[in-house]
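Chapter summary example.
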Amino acid sequence: MRNKSHHRIGFAWLELLLALAVLALVLQVFPRAGKTVLWMLDVRNWPRSVWFVANVVVLLVLVAVRFGPQVVEDWRTRRERLASEHTKHEKQREIRAQREALERMQEAKRKRIY
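The structure predicted for these 114 residues follows.
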């Protein structure tokens, strides 16, 4: 098992190095792009609207981290409960149909003339 996980880690490092090599190539071919990205990442250049959106996004992420697992768990249990209720109703419907068919057969037997 250790060998498989070690193999996967090796591929992860290889993919990371490949992505860094592509990024370095892009920055060498387009040197202005690197300066533009650095300017955009500098928070001193951000207008108020960007700060507002960033704060709202951080708030939403924190709320999702706090309440997300419980919502997912509630959703799963509700789905399981609804599925079991649906199965139960389907079986009851099937039993009712069988009972009605049996009653019709018994009624037909009683009405039959020998």
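To summarize the output: The chain has a mean pLDDT of 90.
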